[in-house]
Amino acid sequence: MIYDEETLYLAQLCENLSRKICGSLIFQQYENTRTKMSQDDTAIAMKANFQKEKEIYEDLSRFGEYVPGIKEQRKALYQKKRQLDLCKTVADFRQAETQLQELLDGVCQQVAQSFSEDVKVNYGNPFFATTKSDCGGNCHAS
């Protein structure tokens, strides 16, 4: 890529936008909930338990759906996942993470639409309201 004044100007604008987003209330809430979650011993233990169950399940699932004990292991995995999801600090973090992702998706959509309505944007959230996608198929028909 050739860097000229215009390219450097655009890079500066991107840095400014990034700083604005990092200074936003949504980002601050995200950082606060991430810090709380990382310092919550209960959440850390639940995450470790979930990871352990996930590894066991993945090892079993390598041998197929009909290996003895896989249904019980899947159930145990889902229970650990549910426990992790119900942990307050984890739930708060995921909510803040979703809000930040929605903000970033909105910025990307605005930038793309400033060029053309036909520009396709790949969104991190499959439930984001849009009529365009970059998959090229007709699965997101409007």
From TrEMBL:
Signal peptide: none annotated. This is YlbF family regulator. The lineage of its organism: Bacteria, Bacillati, Bacillota, Bacilli, Lactobacillales.
